[in-house]
Amino acid sequence: MRFIFRLLALFALAVAVVMAVVDATRTIAADAWTYTPLSESWQANFPDSLLSFQRFVEAHTIPFLWDPVMTSILSLPGWLVFAVLAFVLHALGYRRRRPGDLLAAR
User: Fold this and answer.
1) What pLDDT shows up at residue 32?
2) For position 67, what pLDDT does the model report?
3) 21 Cβ partners below 8 Å, 6+ apart?
4) For residue 64, what pLDDT is reported?
5) Which end of the chain has the lower number of beta carbons within 10 A, N or C?
6) Is the separation of the CB atoms in 96 and 55 below 8 Å?
7) CA-CA-CA-CA torsion sign (22, 45, 13, 71)
8) How many CB atoms lie within 10 A of CB 12?
């Protein structure tokens, strides 16, 4: 299970880096700080899935989860959301070393 979390963390980190490079390129071209909200990136690449996700959240969860919570998350820069997701997934998949494990590894 740790392997799956770490693999997903690697994928999320790769997406975060790609989105950060796109935003950095746009920032340099515009000569001003610009970022792409996650909702804008999602809408540009997978428009039907964003609407489906919204309908699913509104129908199967607490009603106010979409409007204040998810819209706030979707308004953040995409690279930031995926970087935080990568950190959380890596933390879930991280194996803590015990003091006795150090001697066994040698």
Assistant:
1) 93
2) 86
3) none
4) 83
5) C
6) no
7) positive
8) 20
> What's the rounded Cα separation, in Å, for the pair 5 and 90?
6
pLDDT at 16: 97
Go through 54-74 and write b for each residue having 16 or more CB atoms within 10 A of its CB, e for each that does not. beebeeeeeeeebeeebeeeb
Averaged pLDDT in 10-residue chunks for the chain of 106 residues:
94 97 95 93 92 91 87 95 97 80 56
Closest to 20 measured CA to CA, from 2, 39, 6, 34: 34
Q: Enter the pTM of the model.
A: 0.82
CB 63 within 8 A of CB 28: no
Give the residue from 11, 12, 6, 9 showing the smallest Cα distance to 81. Answer: 12
Q: Are 26 and 79 in contact (CB under 8 A)?
A: no
Is the distance from CB of 36 to CB of 78 less than 8 angstroms?
yes
